[in-house]
Amino acid sequence: MNRQSWRGPALALMLGVSAGVLASTACAQAPAPAPAARPWLDPKLDADTRAGLAVKAMTQDEKLTVIFGFFGADMGDKYKRVPEALAGSAGYVPGIARLGIPAQFQTDAGVGVATQGGEPNKRERTALPSGMATTATWNPKLAQAGGAMIGAEARASGFNVMLAGGVNLVREPRNGRNFEYGGEDPWLAGKMVGAQIKGIQSNAIVSTIKHYALNGQETGRFVLDARIGEADARTSDLLAFQFAMEDSDPHSVMCAYNRVNGDYACENDFLLNKVLKQDWGYKNYVMSDWGAAHSSAKAVNAGLDQESAGDAFDTQPFFKGPLKDALAKGEVSQARLDDMARRVLRGLFASGVVEKPVKIAPIDYAAHAKVTRADAEEGVVLLKNDKGLLPLLSEKGVASARKIVVIGGHADVGVLSGGGSSQVYPIGGRAVQGEGPASWPGPMIYFPSSPLKALKARLPGADIQFADGKDKAAAAKLAAGADVVLVFATQWNGESFDSPLTLENDQDALIDAVATANAKTVVVLETGGPVLMPWLSKVGGVVEAWYPGSEGGEAIARVLTGEVDASGRLPVTFPAALDQLPRLVLDGDPKKPDDLFAVDYTIEGAAVGYKWFDKKGHQPLFAFGHGLSYTTFAYDNLKAETKGGALSVSFDVRNTGKRAGKAVPQVYVSPKAGGWEAPQRLAGFSKVELAPGATTRVTLTVDQRLLATWDDKAHGWSVAAGSYTVALGASSRDTAAKADVTVAARSLPVGLMKP
């Protein structure tokens, strides 16, 4: 969301944290008994019944109250927040005290509790790694634990709605908000983001899922028209949303800024009514993104239920006076207004917000630091490791390098984070001042978790020196005599702008100079997504650390030293060159933000990311799913069979190395007869931890929609009978075993399916 645009107990068990940690941030208030006159407050009733009863008791003004939100932060002379809103919050929707309906206090975002606007008193909160980093763990349990943690901090900060759950696929690797999302594959993104939403909502608060849909770039995001066919949309971006929603039941959907096939997403009948509410049977409410509402009657009739921050960001408050006029003229029916209010209330009842009012409570930041560090560690991807430069400590704890030079990236003081509405302010304050834009989507923020300090603490006998890298010649000279050189390189991404796939501030030249002086150079990348690497052949190692959150420095050091295995895997393809992308030039002109234009997604259709590379035969720089470990794994005894119409895949994973490690076996499927958007699809994955020499048996059931195609005429999914190949491996381009299986023809339900 654009907050400054003037345009209108499972967690504790998983991580060894005491059960009281999360309980300390949960509301201990017992629900009051429901008076006979207010039966909707009876928690024994289901959410649908309660919402229906409450709406019948509401006045017209009360119905209009719960469908309109206010911004929760000051914007200079342009806008002053309503006093009831929490300062620096994303939004506020008044409650109905007469009926016992609480106000909605809204906060961003998917990595933690953010502070918006010009609020001088920033909330210092725990930040998770970026969404891309969390997805790179390929570990839904960690994603759920992280969601539970930030949801607990939201509740303890007074919020009951969290604007999280970014699941937009990476169609455009230059998109400035890719770091907030779940990568390029529908199954991976859906499972990982769904797990996070489930964790957030375990705190009895509402989480959104966003940005619905096809919100693929920031350039022209308010006006661009995403052109795509229904079958391609259903098989890609919409399928990712569908998978995530099935796992998590988000209590709100946030519609996006962009247009889709001509209509704005927040007044798009196909997206909101036909797909979301009719086909998928979604029962909760749709809220607009901040500044994404463009009408009253059209938006309402197309399925928008709540206008967000309408006074601050939209051209007019469409769900106030204009909606009253539309009701009076018969352009909007009373039944539809009742449905809007009912959906909002259902979301509040379903979440537990009504029974468990939020209140400010203490936060156990030390316990939460363990959660975000675990996430960051498993998200670090070891892309290249020639001659075993890493880890810096042997399995017996002996240092492999006596002299280490660390260069660049402000690694002496902190780690980078992404900018915009998702920005969490760090506990302890900013580690770096004066870089990046002074105003939104800045400032550029480094969390005060220093990789250099963490390395020194773990390598007390090593001579570790630091250079900021601003003088390339001096950095190269210092690096020349080192046993290992660690160059930290950054690329700042954020909301409202897109980025080239190149490192800024001449960092490519710095890496080249250092690697020329010493081939034992490892590059540690802190980026929002893929970057090109013209120096790749010169360096001995590459580590992708993403934006690693509040404990990023500690996490990076633990992976570099081998204190924990390098177990992250890429959730996105790293291209070798721009001409491998569906669009060589990014559509739109950032200097002309009001000019309407279209983005032709029919070029790749549903062949997003690795599917496009497979279809076109491109050799990526690093493939989807790729990631090295400090040990080795073997995949054996692959078996694929159909049971009751479902495809079951089982196999052995064995640790063949000398260290404990975590494998990420990946299953891909393809029809021998062809006919899909691309040669293969990811159909399943697992993350398993194994001691040296240990073996485990893994069994996965493939979701049948991953074997199906969408038939527009039949309006449904269809699995074609025939022979299919099941491939097992370590990435989309590294398959160790294959098996054939015969699948029977089958038609599948259109709606949401319970996992």
Q: How much of the polypeptide forms β-strand, as a percent range?
A: 15-25%
> Main β-sheet, in a few words?
7 strands, mixed
- Global geometry: globular
Question: Which structural class should the secondary elements be placed in?
Answer: alpha/beta
Side-by-side strand order of the widest sheet: 1-2-3-4-5-7-10
Oligomer: single chain
| Average pLDDT number | 94
What's the alpha carbon Rg, rounded to whole Å? 25 Å
Show unreliable segments. 2-30
Helix content: 25-40%
Total E-strand runs: 31
* DSSP summary: helix tally: 20
Descriptive notes:
- There is one protein chain.
- The protein contains 20 helices and 31 strands.
- The protein has 755 residues and is α/β, with parallel strands linked by helices.
- Strand 27 and strand 28 form a beta hairpin.
- Helix 6 packs parallel to helix 7, helix 15 packs across helix 19 and helix 16 packs across helix 19.
- The chain is globular.
- It starts with 9 loop residues before the first helix and ends in a 7-residue tail after the last strand.
